[in-house]
Specification:
Pfam family, one: 2-Hacid_dh_C
Number of helices: 13
Protein name: C-terminal binding protein
Structural class: alpha/beta
Strand content: 5-15%
GO molecular function: (S)-2-hydroxyglutarate dehydrogenase activity; glyoxylate reductase (NADPH) activity; hydroxypyruvate reductase [NAD(P)H] activity; NAD binding; phosphoglycerate dehydrogenase activity; transcription corepressor activity
Order of helices and strands: EHEHEHEHEHHHEHEHEHEHEHEEH
CATH topology of the largest domain: Rossmann fold
Strand order of the largest sheet: 8-7-6-9-10-11-12
Keywords: NAD, Oxidoreductase
EC number: 1.1.1.399, 1.1.1.95
Number of domains: 2
CATH architecture of the largest domain: 3-Layer(aba) Sandwich
Length: about 350
């Protein structure tokens, strides 16, 4: 019988095909840990997971009810940046560390954000439609209304890893940059050529507002009607963070009534959107299907990282990325020493 049991909801998450957990098992097999799939409903999952050593969270919300039922769980591990599918507060109350992978797909998401900025600014989707529908002559006149990109202002709401990577990409385009983030040191912003600002200053002065706030209860509907009213009429709103950070009804109203010019969105409040979501029929909206982090290395890199995090904690060591680090101070887990890995979690 295996030494450790890692229980996960049955069904793949963020993957094209099913998984045999081969990438996760690279770190788990050597410590005699097995991954067991459990029913993907709360009652069924609880029955299978209550004596698990670890939870590999995917597919279903890991609720307070589930967490409170866990008797021997040492860690809850996510294969994503966002942690909104886990009740972190409940896990913290039980002394269970929750891990994620915040540093694995920074480059991909930053590329996607920059792509949305440029596509929205140069009206790429509209231009494509004009050509395909025989309206060739309308293309140039439409862009004669668009200003030069150089000298425009890009404002960041939250200035974490992805926003900082976007800033590096935006600088060569000659964009002036500013950011609102009360949790980031101003010196770090200056190091990236970004001016620290208040939220009001970012919204009112920016030609592009790029949203990067994480999905946490305290930033649910962080941007509402009053915020979109502060933005420039010609501005473009970009969101590659989480849809729930924005009051979508207010964003739709802002686009319909011309408070802002365009929205370029990889995330929506409800995913996938319902067929009658007004955003789907609006010409001043560019949409992608929550794919910013996707690339050829996506599954391999994140799954190896999941296995590595699980392995560390099951062996009694601190995880690399913990979203509730306060619990580590009250556990018997010990700090780990970095080791060289040929195919590590960030390879």
């Amino acid at each position: 019988m295996p030494k450790y049991r890692v229980v996960t909801p049955k069904g793949a998450s963020f993957t094209v095909a099913g998984s045999d957990y081969s990438f996760e098992r690279e770190a788990l097999d050597p410590i005699d840990a097995e991954i067991i799939e459990a029913p993907a409903d709360e009652a069924g999952f609880i029955a299978a997971a209550k004596t698990a050593d670890a939870i590999y969270a995917k597919g279903i919300p890991i609720t307070k009810t589930i967490i409170d039922s866990l008797q021997t769980c040492k860690v809850i591990t996510l294969g994503s940046v966002g942690v909104d599918s886990v009740d972190v507060k409940a896990a913290t109350a039980r002394g269970i560390p929750v891990t994620n992978i915040p540093d694995t797909f920074i480059e991909e998401v930053a590329d996607h954000a920059m792509m949305l900025l440029l596509a929205g600014f140069r009206r790429l989707v509209e231009q494509d439609r004009m050509v395909r529908s025989g309206r060739w002559a309308e293309g140039r006149p439409a862009l004669l209304k668009v200003p030069r990109l150089m000298g425009q202002t890009l404002g960041f709401v939250s200035f974490g890893r992805v926003a900082r990577a976007v800033a590096k990409r935006a600088a060569p385009f000659g964009l002036r940059m500013m950011a609102y983030d009360p949790f980031i040191q101003e010196t770090l912003m200056y190091d990236h050529g970004v001016i620290p600002a208040t939220l009001n200053e970012v919204l009112s002065q920016s030609d592009f507002v790029s949203m990067h706030a994480p999905a946490r209860p305290e930033v649910h509907h962080m941007l509402t009607e009053k915020h979109f009213r502060q933005m420039k009429k010609g501005s473009i709103f970009i969101n590659t963070g989480r849809g729930a950070t924005v009051d979508e009804e207010s964003l739709i109203k802002a686009l319909q009534e011309g408070w802002i010019a365009h929205a370029a969105l990889d995330v929506l409040e409800k995913e996938p959107p319902s067929h009658n979501n007004p955003l789907l029929g609006m010409e001043n909206v560019t949409l992608t299907a929550h794919v910013a982090s996707a690339s050829a290395r996506f599954d391999e890199a994140r799954k190896r990282r999941v296995g590595y995090e699980l392995s560390l904690v099951l062996q009694g060591m601190w995880p690399v990325s913990c979203v509730n680090p306060s619990v580590l101070q009250d556990t018997t887990l010990r700090r780990w020493q970095p080791v060289s890995m040929d195919r590590g979690p960030n390879s």
